[in-house]
Amino acid sequence: MAEWSRIARRIRVPLGFVFAVLYFWLARPTWRFLALGAVLIVPGLLIRALASGHVRKNEALATSGPYAYTRNPLYLGSLVMGVGFAVAARSWWVGVALVVMFLAIYVPVIRDEEAFLRGTFPEFEEYARRVPRMLPRLVPPAGAQCGGFSFDLYLKHREWNALIGSLLMALALVVKMTWFS
What is the DSSP letter of 137? Predict the structure, then answer.
């Protein structure tokens, strides 16, 4: 399983581009479903943006902001966005592919990252006991840190790429609806 985690980590971005092409081909968008999808895509982008402004990769354990509610807000945001784009695509095949990719690629990557965090940050065990892995708590645990959002971290992590990619895919769906329907 550890070997697959390493492979999954390396192929997840290139596989995402392959999935985007398949997604565009299978998508049967309408204005209504694009709007319904946006209801999920926008919050997913916001979750990712907030999380990226709180994480100092490999320097400190992120426990503030969205990390007070879930240990994996970046992946949660991606999943919410993915569901939004599946709704916008109006294709069951896209939904099935999303679930398969999440289970096959992201679950092993999350486990591998948590093993790294356990070995790097002694406080991770306590944090993991208080904060769920994926589905967020409704309220932060007692004693959770407030911590401020850092726009510099957002820029450093190049999280704006998720926004640009989402806008380009939405534009591609609009073009497909307008010119190829």
Answer: P
